[in-house]
Amino acid sequence: MTTTTPSRGRRRAPTRIRRAAGRAAALQKPRVILAGLLLLALTSVMLLDGYLRAEVGGDQRVRTGASAGKVPDKILDGGPILTFRGGQATTVSVPDKTIALTFDDGPNPTWTPQVLAILKKYDIPATFFVVGSMVSRYPGIVADMVEQGNEVGIHTFTHVDLSYQSDARVNREMQQTQLALAGAAGITTTLFRAPYSSETDAIDNYSWPVYQKLGEDGYTSVFVDTDSDDWKRPGVSKIIKWATPEDGEGASVLFHDAGGERSQTIKALPTYIEKMQAKGYTFTTISGVLQKEEAAGGQQAGSGQQAGAGAAASSQQPGGAQPGGPGQQGPNGQAGAAGTGSGISALQAAHREATGATLYEGKALIGAVAVAEWAVPVLSVGLMVVGVAVLGRFGMMLLLARRHYRQRNKRRFSWGPPVHEPVSVIVPAYNEKECIANTLKSLAQSTHPIEIIVVDDGSTDNTSEIARDAAHELGMTNVRVIRQENAGKPAALNNGVRSASYDIVVMMDGDTVFEPDTVRHLVQPFADPEVGAVAGNAKVGNRNTVIGAWQHIEYVMGFNLDRRMYDLLRCMPTIPGAIGAFRRQAVLQVGGMSEDTLAEDTDITIAMHRAGWRVVYQEHARAWTEAPGSLKQLWSQRYRWSYGTMQALWKHRKSLTDKGPSGRFGRVGMPLVVIFQIVTPVFAPLIDVFTVYSMIFIDFKAALLAWLAVLGVQLLCAAYAFRLDREQYRYLLMMPLQQLAYRQMMYLVLIHSCITAMTGGRLRWQKLKRTGEVGTPAGVS
């Protein structure tokens, strides 16, 4: 038995184009992933910033008037410091003639540094109960606070009433604040003060379990017994009066260094300190109070437990880590407390040195917040710029489109003597068996004398044979079919230009059909010897599907309204491949259709401008084209268009310095295209992201009204564009859905193209699947 192996020599090697296409395809997935990651990063930054500002996950509920029947009386009647040593709830009072000065709600970049300067001037310490989100935003202030000898405690991360929160939320509030402290000052703390708390007699049945749980985790909860009520801004004298203890008693005194306008606090503080010192008071921290209580023999320290560390924490550190001795670390990467060789003073005994994962995670949190703090304002400014640019563009389009319409539709308007000379129509085709017959059938009805050159670019579906048969059946003797090796659309067009018999060449796609008068209207501007090229009015033929209707709106509003504006400004950026006419001389002058970019139509249009030719828009020359019928094909087409446009703009970047009439595109057209077709659309998703963010986390009604207002402006522009093109308004019913889905896809396509351009990727001309459903214009509704 013999086995025959097929000869390897019979296997055809892939062509250069296929190899390039394969490489491009291999690069697309990573770029799509990168685009998705950029969008995810933007969303994450916004959510982080919103979380820091209590816009995301914020909870403004504050419990009042709840029963305290489950809270032990000794706690309700006890001192302002609540500990759980040995698992037993115990309160500690501040010794006489002693003030534990405490500040809530900071740090604040305006008021906290002023408070610290006053404390430094009088050489007294204080305890700051900081909000984790503020710590992460202003880490330098907390570092200065700790370095100056002050003590810090936790005031939760987002300043929420913990009695309403789940255990998971409580743990998250504490852990995130610990990480913020670790990243800012390299420490964690065992002190805690609940937001909206006051004296111990305000503990109720809902908050008591929270304090018990935190006590089990090693936290010391701190309350007040003298409140300055400075947040009410009652005046300096009343703040001082209300903050003064009675009859020489000690007190945990509450001030605020954030949470509002604190100028009265700043004015009252020096006078208050001098007054208390004159009365013989000393100032200390919460740990200092506990140290005095220990020294006075208020409670016996546990066996082996040092005074400073034992006073500040219970038998466990926050998170369940056992207190560490000298050189020891708990599971959370926290080193031993004061008095254990850590270098932390006795007045900061509640601090733990952050090491290991805790320290690095804290640094990462501070870094992420710094990015968010920088990025979100920049994005906000970008949003304003984009919004102004978009509205400005709409206004400019409406004004110039109106002027263009009135100018070109005047009875006396004329390009010059009527153009009756025959023209050459070039139809590049690659695997267009579904459409080529309809294309030729439409050209057979042309009211202007034409020759038709079908250039088959190496089709594998008998396109050339179908074209010949269709021409024969229609009795068309003016059709030539040229077959060439597959070389791409630019090469096919150049072949057609070289083979053209007449001075004016019309270029169209193989899936496009013309109306009988299309060619006649299209060539009339050539009566003006300055005109080198004419852009026609491309219409979507298969518009009765959702995707088709979306593209129909885009063609009428985005493309044709734009072309009216660019025509008046004499800087038309693109002649559509579906319908365009050129002077053959001008095409040859600029070197023909270039293969340097994927947008050969944009490339040659800019080249015509730079060669000194005028490019105009002829609205009455209509062509009906088959738009992509699936999202995948649409993505492929628009990806090629946007990337090709970027290539063309980069290729002709020197047009910015061109002089005279040939430099008009560089001076006017290039900036407009870059701003309105690349930069603005790239940043336009900010509008949608901010809108969704505002609807969910800030003010749904206001955000919805703003979105509807923008939609209303777009509907107005679209309706006017439809009126100018005499289109049916019923398709505008699809516009709200287009804004929610289709527009987002176009943004992603453009972002994808930008990433491809920045990473140096290259694409080849791509073939879309056609159905041939676009027939003669009469059949299009």
UniProtKB/TrEMBL annotation:
The keyword Coiled coil does not apply. Belongs to the glycosyltransferase 2 family. InterPro entries: Glyco_hydro/deAcase_b/a-brl, NODB_dom, Nucleotide-diphossugar_trans. This is Glycosyltransferase. The chain crosses the membrane at residues 374-401, 672-698, 704-724. Residues 297-341 are annotated as: Disordered. Residues 308-320 have a biased composition (Low complexity). Coiled coil: none annotated. Residues 97-284 form the NodB homology domain. SUPFAM superfamilies: Glycoside hydrolase/deacetylase, Nucleotide-diphospho-sugar transferases. Pfam families: Glyco_tranf_2_3 (PF13641), Polysacc_deac_1 (PF01522). PANTHER family: POLY-BETA-1,6-N-ACETYL-D-GLUCOSAMINE SYNTHASE (PTHR43630:SF1). Keywords: Glycosyltransferase, Membrane, Transferase, Transmembrane, Transmembrane helix. Residues 321-330 have a biased composition (Gly residues).
